[in-house]
Design goal:
about 160 residues, alpha+beta, three-stranded antiparallel beta sheet, 3 strands, elongated
Length: about 160
Protein backbone atom coordinates (compact mmCIF):
# COMPACT_ATOMS: atom_id res chain seq x y z
CA UNK A 1 0.00 0.00 0.00
CA UNK A 2 1.45 3.39 -0.96
CA UNK A 3 1.95 6.23 1.49
CA UNK A 4 -0.93 8.11 -0.20
CA UNK A 5 -3.29 5.17 0.34
CA UNK A 6 -2.24 4.82 3.97
CA UNK A 7 -2.88 8.49 4.69
CA UNK A 8 -6.05 8.66 2.62
CA UNK A 9 -7.67 5.32 3.36
CA UNK A 10 -11.12 6.96 3.09
CA UNK A 11 -10.61 7.30 -0.66
CA UNK A 12 -10.40 4.75 -3.39
CA UNK A 13 -10.85 5.21 -7.09
CA UNK A 14 -14.06 3.15 -7.22
CA UNK A 15 -15.82 5.57 -4.87
CA UNK A 16 -16.12 3.07 -2.01
CA UNK A 17 -15.76 5.58 0.76
CA UNK A 18 -16.74 5.12 4.37
CA UNK A 19 -18.73 8.22 5.31
CA UNK A 20 -17.44 7.97 8.89
CA UNK A 21 -13.90 8.52 7.54
CA UNK A 22 -14.92 11.23 5.08
CA UNK A 23 -12.49 14.16 5.25
CA UNK A 24 -13.90 17.09 7.18
CA UNK A 25 -11.99 19.64 5.09
CA UNK A 26 -14.90 19.55 2.66
CA UNK A 27 -16.84 21.13 5.52
CA UNK A 28 -14.13 23.38 6.94
CA UNK A 29 -15.64 25.78 9.46
CA UNK A 30 -18.69 23.62 10.17
CA UNK A 31 -19.68 23.50 13.82
CA UNK A 32 -21.12 20.00 13.43
CA UNK A 33 -21.93 17.33 10.85
CA UNK A 34 -24.73 14.77 10.73
CA UNK A 35 -23.12 11.72 9.15
CA UNK A 36 -26.39 9.79 9.39
CA UNK A 37 -27.88 12.18 6.80
CA UNK A 38 -25.29 11.30 4.15
CA UNK A 39 -26.39 10.70 0.57
CA UNK A 40 -24.17 9.58 -2.29
CA UNK A 41 -23.02 12.15 -4.78
CA UNK A 42 -22.78 11.79 -8.55
CA UNK A 43 -19.13 12.71 -9.07
CA UNK A 44 -19.60 12.73 -12.85
CA UNK A 45 -21.73 15.87 -12.49
CA UNK A 46 -19.30 17.79 -10.24
CA UNK A 47 -16.67 20.40 -10.98
CA UNK A 48 -13.43 19.37 -9.23
CA UNK A 49 -9.72 19.16 -9.90
CA UNK A 50 -8.39 16.21 -7.90
CA UNK A 51 -10.85 15.05 -5.25
CA UNK A 52 -14.62 14.97 -5.80
CA UNK A 53 -17.26 14.98 -3.07
CA UNK A 54 -18.54 11.44 -2.76
CA UNK A 55 -21.09 12.32 -0.07
CA UNK A 56 -23.41 15.17 0.76
CA UNK A 57 -23.86 15.55 4.50
CA UNK A 58 -26.00 17.97 6.54
CA UNK A 59 -23.53 20.46 8.01
CA UNK A 60 -24.10 23.37 10.39
CA UNK A 61 -22.26 26.67 10.04
CA UNK A 62 -22.40 30.08 11.72
CA UNK A 63 -23.69 32.86 9.46
CA UNK A 64 -21.09 35.63 9.11
CA UNK A 65 -23.87 38.22 8.91
CA UNK A 66 -26.40 37.40 11.64
CA UNK A 67 -24.14 34.99 13.60
CA UNK A 68 -26.90 32.37 13.84
CA UNK A 69 -26.30 28.68 13.27
CA UNK A 70 -27.77 27.28 10.06
CA UNK A 71 -27.87 23.93 8.31
CA UNK A 72 -26.36 23.56 4.86
CA UNK A 73 -28.44 20.59 3.81
CA UNK A 74 -27.43 17.66 1.68
CA UNK A 75 -30.05 18.44 -1.00
CA UNK A 76 -28.83 22.03 -1.27
CA UNK A 77 -25.29 20.73 -1.69
CA UNK A 78 -26.44 18.32 -4.39
CA UNK A 79 -28.07 21.20 -6.26
CA UNK A 80 -25.02 23.50 -5.98
CA UNK A 81 -22.46 20.91 -6.96
CA UNK A 82 -24.37 18.86 -9.52
CA UNK A 83 -26.94 21.23 -11.03
CA UNK A 84 -25.43 24.70 -10.65
CA UNK A 85 -21.88 23.51 -11.33
CA UNK A 86 -20.33 25.18 -8.30
CA UNK A 87 -16.77 24.09 -7.56
CA UNK A 88 -16.75 21.32 -4.88
CA UNK A 89 -14.57 23.25 -2.44
CA UNK A 90 -17.23 25.95 -1.98
CA UNK A 91 -18.82 26.38 1.44
CA UNK A 92 -21.59 28.70 2.59
CA UNK A 93 -20.89 31.75 4.70
CA UNK A 94 -24.43 33.13 4.95
CA UNK A 95 -27.70 31.58 6.10
CA UNK A 96 -30.54 31.56 3.58
CA UNK A 97 -32.18 34.76 4.88
CA UNK A 98 -28.92 36.71 4.88
CA UNK A 99 -28.02 35.30 1.46
CA UNK A 100 -31.37 36.48 0.06
CA UNK A 101 -30.81 39.95 1.55
CA UNK A 102 -27.32 39.99 0.03
CA UNK A 103 -28.76 39.08 -3.38
CA UNK A 104 -31.40 41.80 -3.08
CA UNK A 105 -28.72 44.36 -2.12
CA UNK A 106 -26.71 43.37 -5.20
CA UNK A 107 -29.74 43.83 -7.48
CA UNK A 108 -30.64 47.17 -5.90
CA UNK A 109 -27.03 48.35 -6.23
CA UNK A 110 -27.05 47.44 -9.94
CA UNK A 111 -30.34 49.27 -10.41
CA UNK A 112 -28.96 52.30 -8.57
CA UNK A 113 -25.79 52.32 -10.71
CA UNK A 114 -27.80 52.16 -13.95
CA UNK A 115 -30.46 54.75 -13.12
CA UNK A 116 -28.94 57.31 -10.75
CA UNK A 117 -27.54 59.51 -13.53
CA UNK A 118 -30.89 59.63 -15.38
CA UNK A 119 -32.94 60.21 -12.24
CA UNK A 120 -30.86 63.19 -11.05
CA UNK A 121 -31.49 65.15 -14.26
CA UNK A 122 -33.95 67.97 -13.68
CA UNK A 123 -36.16 66.86 -16.60
CA UNK A 124 -36.40 63.18 -15.57
CA UNK A 125 -39.89 61.87 -14.71
CA UNK A 126 -41.08 62.18 -11.12
CA UNK A 127 -41.80 58.45 -11.06
CA UNK A 128 -38.16 57.65 -11.84
CA UNK A 129 -36.98 60.00 -9.10
CA UNK A 130 -39.35 58.39 -6.60
CA UNK A 131 -38.28 54.89 -7.68
CA UNK A 132 -34.63 55.81 -7.19
CA UNK A 133 -35.41 57.29 -3.78
CA UNK A 134 -37.22 54.07 -2.83
CA UNK A 135 -34.23 52.06 -4.08
CA UNK A 136 -31.84 54.07 -1.91
CA UNK A 137 -34.11 53.70 1.12
CA UNK A 138 -34.34 49.92 0.63
CA UNK A 139 -30.56 49.71 0.21
CA UNK A 140 -30.18 51.48 3.52
CA UNK A 141 -32.64 49.07 5.21
CA UNK A 142 -30.74 46.03 3.94
CA UNK A 143 -27.23 47.34 4.58
CA UNK A 144 -25.25 46.26 7.60
CA UNK A 145 -23.24 49.49 7.53
CA UNK A 146 -23.99 53.04 6.51
CA UNK A 147 -24.30 53.88 2.84
CA UNK A 148 -21.49 55.77 1.09
CA UNK A 149 -21.63 59.56 1.36
CA UNK A 150 -22.26 59.96 -2.40
CA UNK A 151 -25.42 57.85 -2.23
CA UNK A 152 -26.63 59.90 0.75
CA UNK A 153 -25.97 63.13 -1.19
CA UNK A 154 -27.86 61.77 -4.19
CA UNK A 155 -30.78 60.87 -1.95
CA UNK A 156 -30.88 64.41 -0.61
CA UNK A 157 -30.74 65.84 -4.14
CA UNK A 158 -33.65 63.62 -5.20
CA UNK A 159 -35.66 64.63 -2.14
CA UNK A 160 -35.03 68.33 -2.94
CA UNK A 161 -36.16 67.81 -6.54
CA UNK A 162 -39.36 66.08 -5.41
CA UNK A 163 -40.40 68.96 -3.15
Amino acid sequence: MSLFNKKCSWFNMTGNIDVAQYPEYFFYGAVRLDLSSAIRADINRQHFTVVPRHWYIDAWFICKECHEEFCWGKEVQRFWFEEAGTYVWARPSLCRDCWLKYQERKQLQKRYNVLIGKSLKSDSPVGLKQEMLDTINRLEELSTKSLPEQIMQNRQALMNQLK
